[in-house]
User: Which sequence fits this backbone?
């Protein structure tokens, strides 16, 4: 590996510490490509074994060590950054917990036999909507609006369902009176 390629490799390794995950991943993939071109593996780099390339890549290992150590020294996280990271983790855990509760509610709803769910269709539809609202990442006002929409769906579907039930009852009664001579 020439000096120019070695410098490029070291710069790519430096980019792997980026806070942007896409940039870090792209840099790591480029590092893999460089290693593949020179028939090296990460095991060779980490262990310091560059037997295929001879001893001229020992400088590469020194450069890699310097980049990693410099990053460790410069990576002293400030208390505010640590606090911000903990807040992000808490938000992630809260969001994940909400999603788990939503899935548990939906599974509970879906364990009810289909015939019973169809008989109580308005309640079933509203329960499904409210389960998705419960896990929403939206603000409180948006969740309140979605809850209102769920109640509106309950009211409209209840009226429609009652009309269907009434129509079926009238048809059954008409059929019963027509069957009796």
Assistant:
């Amino acid at each position: 590996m020439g000096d120019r390629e070695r410098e490029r490799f070291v710069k790519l390794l430096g980019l792997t510490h980026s806070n942007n995950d896409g940039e870090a991943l792209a840099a790591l993939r480029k590092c893999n490509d460089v290693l593949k071109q020179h028939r090296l593996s990460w095991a060779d780099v980490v262990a310091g074994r560059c037997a295929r390339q001879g001893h001229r890549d020992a400088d590469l290992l020194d450069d890699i060590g310097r980049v990693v150590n410099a990053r460790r020294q410069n990576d002293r996280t400030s208390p505010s950054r640590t606090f911000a990271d903990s807040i992000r983790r808490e938000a992630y855990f809260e969001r994940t917990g909400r999603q788990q509760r939503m899935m548990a509610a939906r599974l509970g709803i879906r364990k009810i036999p289909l015939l019973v769910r169809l008989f109580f269709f308005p309640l079933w539809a509203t329960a499904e909507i409210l389960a998705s609202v419960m896990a929403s990442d939206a603000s409180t006002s948006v969740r309140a609006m979605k809850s209102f929409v769920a109640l509106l769906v309950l009211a409209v579907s209840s009226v429609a369902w009652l009309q269907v039930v009434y129509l079926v009852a009238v048809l059954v009664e008409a059929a019963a009176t027509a069957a009796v001579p």
User: Anything to note?
Assistant: The chain has two domains: 3-74, 100-179. Helices lie at 3-15, 21-37, 42-47, 58-74, 79-110, 114-119, 121-134, 140-179. Residues 16 and 24 are 4 Å apart (CA to CA). Residues 50-55 have pLDDT under 50 and may be disordered.
